[in-house]
Each structure stands twice: as structure tokens, then as C-alpha cells.
Amino acid sequence: MARARRRASGFLRDFQEFALKGNVVDLAIAVIIGTAFGKIITSFVEDVIMPLINPLVSFTGKDWRTITISPGIKIGEFLGAIVDFVIIALILFVAIRALQKFKRQEEVADEPLPDPNLVAQERLIGALDRLNQTLETRNNQVL
């Protein structure tokens, strides 16, 4: 009996450590926000976009989302889900692109600037090397 309790408490402890890790909590928050965002997009499509498009694509005077091919095959709802997906994909693409651009700017800002003294020394050494080469070529031409 004591052995079973230790196993159960060990399992619960392991599960607690797993569930409270940052990645799992972040994932749960992302799922909740994603669900809410999906509802917002669905409402946007159904209540804002479709009333503007329905007069243009109406099929026998009905809302295009109610179009069915045969009993049970709801083509209109399927097309509405595709419109929802395209809008969500477009918004995610724009958001991810903006985050990547911001991250690149952060990486460029994080790079340390070179020491001006080292840059000046490198330029001076380069100039001295060119001067030395020029003097050697002139000495060789005189001889």
C-alpha cells in the first residue's frame, strides 16, 4: 500500500513539474487566445464581410453560406471556413513578419560597436603597409 502511494505521489509530482513548466503554460495561453481570436475572425467574416459580399454572390436569393449540394453537404459553410482560414493565415503572416523584422533590428542593435581606437590602428597599419610597398618599388626601380 505504501509503495502505491509513493508511485502515485511520484507521478503527481512529475506531472506537476511538467504542467508548470513555462512551455506548457505558454502553450495553454496560446490555445485560449487562439480560440478567442478564431471567434473574433468568424464574427468579422459573418457580420462584416459577408453582408457586403452576399448581394454580389447570392444564389437564388439565399445567403451563400446556406448553399447545400445535397442533404448534409454544406458547401456554403465550408467556403465560409476557408474565408476564415485565409484571413487568420494572412493576419498571422503579417504578425510573424513584423516580429521577425523587429527581432532582426534587435540583433543589429545588440551587436557591439567596434572600438574606434582599433579601427584607427587598423587603418594606420594598412596605410603604413601601402607606403612601405610604394617605397620598396621605388627603391627597386632606382637600382
TrEMBL record:
Regions that span the bilayer: 20-41, 78-96
InterPro entries: Mechanosensitive_channel_CS (IPR019823), MS_channel (IPR001185), MSC/AndL (IPR037673), MscL_channel (IPR036019)
Bilayer topology: Multi-pass membrane protein
Main location: membrane
Coiled coil: none
Compartments where located: Cell membrane
UniProt entry keywords in alphabetical sequence: Cell membrane, Ion channel, Ion transport, Membrane, Transmembrane, Transmembrane helix, Transport
Keyword Ribosomal protein in record: no
Pfam families xref list: MscL
Family, as annotated: Belongs to the MscL family.
Quaternary state and interactors: Homopentamer.
HAMAP family assigned to the protein according to its UniProt record, in alphabetical order: MscL
Function: Channel that opens in response to stretch forces in the membrane lipid bilayer. May participate in the regulation of osmotic pressure changes within the cell.
Protein name as it appears in the record: Large-conductance mechanosensitive channel
Species the sequence originates in: Nostoc linckia FACHB-391
